[in-house]
Write a structure and sequence with these properties.
Layout (H helix, E strand, L loop, with lengths): L4 H10 L6 E6 L2 E6 L2 E7 L2 E5 L5 H6 L4 E6 L2 E9 L8 H20 L1
Antiparallel strand pairs: 1-2, 2-3, 3-4, 4-6, 5-6
């Protein structure tokens, strides 16, 4: 997966208006959490947010792909989709996308 801590720090700085956001190293990248709930991941210096049926349309409309990885000759797709690059530089937009991902992650915990 791979990612550097400089990009992680940038993302966390952009999300500083959301209480309780932290990141920790996972599988060569980073998991991003809000109060212990993982709502995003950073892989190869790309931010992916948690997606479910309620917010997937936003990512599809923006033309963003899901996170995919290969293992043992198979490709797997996760329920995290790439954040649009234009929102990364706008803390307000990024926080809105993050809040939607947090809600998706919380809904996922209930099922």
């Amino acid at each position: 997966m791979g990612s550097n801590s400089e990009f992680r720090d940038y993302v966390l700085d952009q999300l500083d208006t959301i209480e309780g956001v932290t990141a920790r190293a996972m599988f060569g990248g980073f998991g991003v959490f809000q109060d212990g709930v993982m709502f995003a991941l950073i892989a190869k210096d790309t931010l992916y947010f948690k997606v479910d049926d309620e917010n997937r349309i936003d990512y599809e409309s923006a033309g963003m792909p899901p996170f995919r990885y290969a293992r043992s000759g198979k490709t797997f797709e996760m329920s995290y989709w790439q954040a649009p690059s234009d929102v990364l530089d706008d803390p307000d937009d990024l926080s809105n996308w993050a809040r939607s991902a947090i809600a998706a992650a919380q809904r996922g915990r209930l099922t």
